[in-house]
Amino acid sequence: MIMKKNEENKKVKRRDFIQSSARFGIVLGLGGLGGLLAERSKTEEYVWQIDPFECMQCGRCADECVVTPSAVKCVHAFQLCGYCDLCGGYFKPGVMDLNTGAENQLCPTSAIKRSFVEEPFFEYTIDEDLCIGCAKCVKGCGSFGNGSLHLQIKQDLCVNCNQCAIAIMCPTDAIVRVPASQPYKVKGNFTKT
């Protein structure tokens, strides 16, 4: 009889052990799953970027960025460009002589390079090292052209401040946080929703 009770006690203890182990395993698994989900949501990084459809080319990007020169640079959406001989983003308004002299260029640092393609087309490229993000070319292109020039925050230059100094000063709230997996809002690839 004592032996029978001992066997029943062993079965009960074994059953309790298996049940508690199963509960512990489930709790551990759920905790691990919850931790994994929390980690994944936490690791989704965001970066600052300019919405080209909201930017009003105020020039603050050149002055307010904590990086010198600014991490904001002009980019060119070539698929939108008309390759105009008289480019509103390249030449100062009212230029009489269409030559590449500095006195005729809208960009204060000569960051836009003009190359002949064929009559009457020219290609315009941006030298990022010279660009200060002043937006003069962007404003000219938008006023007298199709808006193929626009500003973007270059992610290899940006220090990704917790609160972007430019975003604080932006009058149109054009600087927003975007997923790091899609860091650029380039015209032509991006349409306003």
Please tally the helical runs, counting DSSP H or I stretches of 4 or more residues: 4
What is the straight-line distance between the termini?
A: 81 Å
Number of domains: 2
Radius of gyration, rounded? 30 Å
Report the biggest beta sheet as strand number plus sense, adding barrel if it closes.
Answer: 2 strands, antiparallel
Mean pLDDT: 84
Overall, the morphology is rod-shaped
Number of strands: 6
Stretches where pLDDT is under 50 for at least 5 consecutive residues are none
The percentage helix is: 25-40%
Tell me the structural class.
alpha+beta
Could you characterize what this model shows?
This protein is an alpha+beta fold and 193 residues long. It has two domains: 1-43; 46-179, no CATH class. Helices cover 32% and strands 17% of the residues. It is built from four helices and six strands; from the N terminus they run H-E-H-E-E-E-H-E-H-E. The strands form three sheets. The chain has a two-stranded antiparallel ribbon with strand order 1-6. Strands 2-5 form a two-stranded antiparallel sheet.
